[in-house]
Each structure stands twice: as C-alpha cells, then as structure tokens.
Please model this.
Amino acid sequence: MHGVRLRTRVCVALLLARKGRHMSGNDDIAHIEEELPLQDLPLDAWHRVRGARMVGFAGYHMPIQYEGIMAEHAWTREHAGLFDVSHMGQLTFSGDGVDEALEHLLPSDIKGLKPFRQRYSMLLDEEGGILDDLMVSRLGGGAFDGADIYMVVNGATKYDDIGWMIEHLPDEVVMNHMDEQALLALQGPEAGEALASLIPETADLIFMQSGPFVWRGVPLWISRSGYTGEDGFEISVPAGDVTLLADALCDLPQVKPIGLGARDSLRLEAGLPLYGHDLTPAVSTIGADLGFAIQKRRREEGGFIGHARVMKELADGPGSRRVGLKIEGRLPAREGAAIYAGDVLVGEVTSGGFAPTVGAPIAMGWVSLPHAGLGEALEIEVRGKRIAATVAPMPFVPHRYRRKA
Amino acid sequence: MSRYFTDEHEWIDVAGEIATVGITDYAQEQLGDIVFVELPAEGTSFEKGDDAAVVESVKAASDVYAPISGEVVETNSALEDEPALVNSDAEEDGWFFKLRIADASELEGLMNEAAYKKFVASL
Model:
C-alpha cells in the first residue's frame, strides 16, 4: 500500500521524450518528492457519500469496504456487486505491425485474437519472470478512436508496464494510456440481468467476449469477464460519465457497491492470482499454473521475451508451483507464512485469509515441486504454531462464467 | 464495578482483584468482520503491554495487548465457536480474558468512559 514512486514516472516521461511518443494525461513531474501523494479516482466522492472506508492502494484513495467485507462478499456471490477498478491501467495499441510487436512482448496468441475477443496474458522479463498479468482484447466497431488492441493492466504496476512496453515496442506502434477512462466491474449471478436492464444488447455477450455499447449517449467498452469467479462484466467508461453510470447501476435492486476487501476474498476463492503477491518477477508462468495463457503456436514458435524459461520449465518442470491450500481449523494463514513438510521448509503462503463462501480459511502459496501435488499434507507456521494444510484444487468456489449464449 | 479504557481500544472491568478485558466497539468496527480470536492459555502471566491475544479479521491479524499486568484466570471460550461475538457485542459477551490483577496502581493512568469517548471523537 504505497504510492507510485516518482522515479517510475520520471522514467516514463524520459522514455516518452526520447521516443517522441504520445501519452495522454497529466504528466506533471514538477514536484520532486520521494512518494507521490495518493490521488483521487473519478468516483472518489461517490464512494465517500456511500459510506466507504477509504485506504491507499496502488497510489490512489480506494474503498476497502462499505458495510463490511463478509456482507459484500456474500452479496456478490448471490446478487451483483459493483467494483470501482479505475486504478487499473487502460491502454490501446495501434499502428502497422501491432500484432507482431505485441507477440514479442506477450507470450499469448495475438494474431489469432479475433475482434471483440479477450485473452488473459502477461508481461515477462528476459528471464521469464512475471512483470504483470493483464487482459488483452482486439477492438472493433471504431471503439477508442479506431485503435487495434485494448489492454488492461494492474494499477500498481501500470507506469512500470508502460515504461517496459515503450522500451520494447517499435516506433510504428502507438500506445495510448487512457487515464481519462474509468473502469467498473459488475460481478455476480445477477450481473447479467442487471446490466441488460440498462443495455439490453449486453445479454448476448459470453465469457471473454467484448464490444462497444452506448448507454444514454455515452460510449462504453464492455467485456464479459472479471475477477470474482462469477459471471459479470468490466465496463470502460469516460471518467466524466462514470458517476452517472455507477448511480444507475446501484439504483438497480440487484446491485450494491463492493470494496477492495471483498474483491480480494472473492478472487482468492476463485483461485485467481494477485499480482505483487502470488505473481512477481521472481516466478514463472509455468510454475504459476498459467500455461493456458501461452497457446500451442507460441510455445512452438517462441519469439517472445522469456520464451527460453517457459520451454525449459515445460520440459523439466518448474522448481516450485503456485498451489491452493485448504487449512484445518479456523486460524487463517496469511501472506508470508512459511510452509513445511515435516521439518523441511518447502514454500511460502502468498495470499491467505478467511474465505466467506467456503466458511474456512484458505490460502494460495508457492511450494517446491515434490510437495506440490494435490492432497499433499503440509504444515503452515503461524505465530510459532504449526497448522495443518492440504494442497487443494483451485478454484475453491466453482467458477460460474457464462460460456454459452 | 468500574470500567476503564486504554488508548489501544481495550476496556477493562475491575471487580475486586479480577479484571475482565475486551476490545471496544470502536475497535471491532475498525477491524471489520472478525473470523478468529487467539486467546492466551489460562495461567499465563503478562506484564503490561505484552502481546496477549490476536484478533483475525477477514483482512488482517491484529495484536491485543495486556492493558495491565496479571495472570490469566479465564478466557472466553464462546469466542472459539463464535468469533463474530466480538463484532456483535464487543463490550459485554465478546470479552477476551480475565486477569488476576498484579498491580492495581496500573489502573490509575487509564481513561474512564467519558474520556475514552472524547479520545475516539478526536481520532
């Protein structure tokens, strides 16, 4: 929970100047400070009026909770929750050779990505370490000034991602950081009917499909995806219109605003990794069990940064793996807790907490390969005590994506 | 019986040589949904300020300090099955543990209810 370091922004600004590339938004770097002060997102006042407790996250004031994490978690699993994720980085890419350029940066199949389709992918460094995980989609219908590709990256890493990509993209490819766009996520089993009551055409979207829509004259880019394991949408909306849209959504009987706290417990139950915790530059795609993001052609042909590590780990296996952990008893094991097999230290918890839908503590962690098999009995040290844990399949709560129309 | 408060948001009910300790309603509100309370073993002796218990909310673990020195004579076993009692009734049924008071003079610097209310209002 720290501010974006100024160093990063200076770095981006310098790279921008050097490459002569356009980046929209306010890049005022006149104030030399160790840390940038927390910034306000477009819905800041809206959250406060609705009773949110605000915390610093990814450089912004963000709502951690409204009525309480347990109630918000349960509401999202049963109805529909509205999350403000405007801290995330929304980028577009266009220009000649954009697919080839992005296939150099991303291990996923971009050339085969059809208009209005979305894929989960990641940025890898030269050693195959994960710099960020992200969603990438092919635009269509003239959205975002006719750009080709739309990408959503994590808020805490967006300036580093931009710097990395500027460094590795050819001059012909134009990247635009749309920091004038807000992003909302509407998640839960009633999200579909709720959104369709405002925008009937969204009923036709299926999981990982996206498209341009218009609501009261406001252009929206909506994808059917999310970070809770539930059916739902992510809605990119101009910052100036987001308050109106958030009000319209929360006026619906199915929808309540949900904070970051429940977002974290929902994604943990869904087995979805959190960048900066479960994924870092120290870990690899295959060990992270994210090999699905690297399609067959990309594995065979390579041609992306970090390919050598991916191929080596596909052949030899990774040194350790990201696993789910079911915990006995009620004491939660948190990030940083050591994982043991007998007396041997075999790993570390990277996310953990009480899982409201499961009704018990669960965790995600990295465990050395020989001890990472399903059903493996391990122990986690919490405040000097050992608690029993078992390597468990993820998700902990079944996904309920809408895969068919 | 008199009730004292600390600036660590604990309350202490004193009856004779026994002090009952819990966290305040303000503290439970700040912590959010409580899912586990780790209580000390009976017979443990604490110096004032020692880590005495841990409250786990959905998001985080928080330490509860011994507000005064003493020996644990009883813990609230109801919290094992229902940690949410701390949310629903922090200042009565959600008590944590009882101490046999080692040094009654340590109570002198603590706040009364009016002073604690004023303290919370200033936060």
